[in-house]
């Protein structure tokens, strides 16, 4: 009998969820708005999603992709980015009354696991995923295993400083990878230049039309993304670096990053292939399911 799992990918804006089988085939899916934080409503919403699926399916477990640093065995979250309701809480205990096995992992680790299981890194033992969104997140595979580091903190690439001066107390706010190379940084830069709010899609469209402000913002964005990627190549020398996040849907991004790495140090591209992630919006769910199946001993 085919087993089915509730899979939830929790983000600051939305919770993407689905019922999937063991091969990550989606049987039913939906999107729920993430509740306003601070009202302690998030766990109630998660339970409602799972129980709604239970009306139609017999579920064999709950797999979750969550922001922040996660203790995967206990289910405790040390910090949770924008979803502050999860911070300092044990998710497995909070959802225990669902009566189902529950496994969870960091959101970018889930993206990385998805690429290893069914994506662009299936044949790689050593690779890195970079997710460019509101910040910069990362996942690291070393010798065929996901590297988590202490407290699950490995892969926080966004905290790397790309620029610095003697005002060290504020370097992270002004010169970190996230502050310079995230999609949020791109949107903020372009909005300031144009003196009105724009989206990422707007920026690429305007750049195609020759808008000088959009082009200048993209130049800064590509430079930061390339410098951060080159740093990771020289630290880890992986077989591949895969760039994901919403911006990776723009095929020009990886091309521009490669071009700039060649200017920084061309031999770096002989060490590491730089590509886009295979999975887009489904990555977190696919990786969360893979994590569940491995933790439960269903996959090795």
TrEMBL record:
Pfam families, A to Z: ROK
Organism superkingdom: Bacteria
Membrane-traversing stretches: none
Name recorded for this polypeptide: ROK family protein
Annotated family: Belongs to the ROK (NagC/XylR) family.
InterPro entries xref list: ATPase_NBD (IPR043129), ROK (IPR000600)
């Amino acid at each position: 009998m085919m087993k089915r799992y509730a899979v939830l990918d929790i983000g600051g804006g939305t919770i993407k969820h689905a019922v999937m089988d063991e091969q990550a085939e989606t049987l039913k899916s939906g999107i729920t708005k993430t509740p306003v934080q601070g009202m302690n409503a998030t766990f109630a919403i998660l339970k409602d999603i799972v129980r709604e699926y239970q009306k139609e399916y017999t579920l064999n477990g709950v797999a979750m992709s969550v922001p922040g640093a996660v203790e995967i065995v206990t289910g405790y979250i040390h910090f949770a980015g924008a979803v502050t309701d999860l911070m300092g809480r044990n998710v497995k205990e909070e959802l225990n009354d669902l009566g189902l096995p529950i496994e969870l992992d960091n959101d970018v680790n889930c993206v990385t696991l998805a690429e290893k299981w069914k994506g662009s890194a299936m044949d790689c033992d050593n690779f890195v995923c970079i997710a460019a969104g509101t910040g910069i997140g990362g996942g690291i595979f070393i010798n065929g295993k996901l590297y988590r580091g202490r407290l699950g903190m490995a892969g926080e690439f966004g905290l790397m400083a790309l620029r610095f001066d003697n005002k060290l107390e504020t370097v992270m706010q002004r010169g970190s990878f996230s502050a310079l190379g995230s999609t949020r940084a791109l949107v903020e830069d372009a909005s300031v230049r144009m003196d009105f709010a724009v989206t990422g899609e707007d920026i690429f469209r305007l750049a195609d039309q020759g808008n000088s402000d959009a082009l200048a913002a993209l130049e800064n964005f590509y430079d930061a993304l390339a410098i951060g990627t080159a740093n990771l190549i020289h630290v880890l020398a992986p077989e591949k670096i895969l760039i994901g996040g919403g911006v990776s849907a723009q095929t020009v991004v990886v091309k521009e990053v490669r071009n700039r790495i060649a200017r920084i140090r061309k031999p770096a591209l002989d060490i590491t292939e730089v590509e886009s992630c295979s999975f887009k919006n489904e990555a977190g769910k696919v990786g969360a399911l893979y994590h569940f199946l491995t933790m439960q001993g269903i996959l090795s």
